[in-house]
Amino acid sequence: KAKSEGRSTYHFFEAGMDADLQSRRSIEAGLRLALQRAELRLVFQPLLGLGENRVTCVEALLRWDHEGRTISPVEFIPIAEETGLIAPIGEWVLREACKIAATWPGDVRVAVNLSPVQFKSRDLLSIVKSALQEARIPATRLELEITESLLLAENDTNLKVLHDLRAMGVRISMDDFGTGYSSLSYLRSFPFDKIKIDRSFMRDLTSRSDSQAIIRAVIGLGQSLGMSTAAEGVETEEQLEMVRALGASEVQGFLFSPPLPPAALASLLHTEAAKQQPERKKAS
Ligand code: C2E
Ligand code: MG
Ligand code: MG
Ligand code: MG
């Protein structure tokens, strides 16, 4: 009897399996093959240095072209993390981003997002080293973006890896700052090079004085801790002028540039380099 009951429970589950779970399953199955089918690609979104008035850094963002549509990382990264697929995918992102950055003019840095799951594998350090070596770019041109969840566990091994990466010359940024649970304490646990203020604060920056106060405070905090600050999600001139006035080091957002395919990003950098060349000659 128990057996048949078990079976009927199973059938009930199958019939009631919701669309969400089905789509998760199909994403998971597709994702397993995405690398070998070459369905993954990177787009690149520049960060404008407000003091320098040029692109100082470019963030690599993952895209998945699957069955005729492009799937957002917001949809598939969590599934990649749960299934462990983030390890090979994240390694591919690092190598590909460094390879492409090697073709850019000047010393523009490349920023790569790291999942906390990638810290679980012991060889993150050697993967980063070999990605840099293969691409022949110095460690100082690489920035790694991590989120607060990495430090949630106050995990000593994660901190050690962060310190080792930093000792190599790699820069470490705290991504989406302000969305976690105890953001402020994380700034004490590790000397980040950059704080990226989450774009949710940008949305109502011009209408809500509390958002403005928070951004002002975070930028001030960054300044006193020796960390640079980047404002994410800058979409309007008004927001740009406001974060400029508040003293942000960099801005990123659709106003300056959306994420671009590699060729378009390279041409943006070359155009900019050509404009700045004569000025530099004049000055010297
Ligand atoms: P993120 O690292 O905070 O990246 C910024 C996201 O904001 C990107 O979304 C970008 O397209 C979007 N964005 C940039 N400027 C604006 C703006 O002005 N307005 C608005 N509304 N959005 C803007 P995207 O590319 O969909 O990536 C979403 C998230 O997925 C990223 O957030 C990052 O957490 C994750 N992700 C992307 N690529 C990778 C990757 O290679 N590895 C890992 N682990 N995560 C990744
Ligand atoms: Mg990021
Ligand atoms: Mg971010
Ligand atoms: Mg974000």
Automatic annotation (TrEMBL):
Domain of life according to the entry: Bacteria
Domain EAL: 24-273
Signal peptide (residue range): none
Annotated protein name in UniProt: EAL domain-containing protein
Included range, full protein: 418 to 701 of 701
